[in-house]
Amino acid sequence: MIKLILHWLILAASILATSTFLPGFKITSFQTALLAAIALGILNVLLRPILLLLTFPINFMTLGLFTLVINGIILLLVAHLVKGISFDHFGWAILAAVVIGIVNSLASFFLKPFGA
Fold it and tell me: Of 18, 47, 103, 116, whose CB is crowded by the most CB atoms within 10 A?
């Protein structure tokens, strides 16, 4: 349970950090980032596998790069579900998905020796 909460906080911090670096991605508060992390986790579990299955041919042809588009779509859905998050356009959502993924992976990697 502690690991789940820690990963949730890491994801929320990643979302908040990404919004400070990207001018086209705006988030109002850390509480909004916490809600966005919950929504992103739920959508990644429920919707992402379905989208990956439906787009397998194009994903195969683009050598997996279409996954970035799917991640951007999921982030746009999170922005529609959680009040206080906005993107200027779809390109910022794709870039935010990439940055969130990198920041989240780095944070999880460096916290792994501490039991995360």
Answer: 18
With 0.70 as the threshold, say if the pTM is over it: yes
Gap between the Cα atoms of 2 and 63, Å rounded: 36
Cα–Cα dist 29/72, whole Å: 21
Q: Where are the domains of the chain?
A: 2-114
What amino acid is encoded at 66 in this protein? F
Distance CA 31, CA 23 (A): 20
Q: What is the pLDDT of residue 113?
A: 73
C-alpha span between 5 and 74 (Å, rounded): 22
Does residue 60 have a pLDDT over 80? Answer: yes
pLDDT over threshold 90, residue 58: yes
As a whole number of angstroms, the distance between CA 55 and CA 95 comes to 20
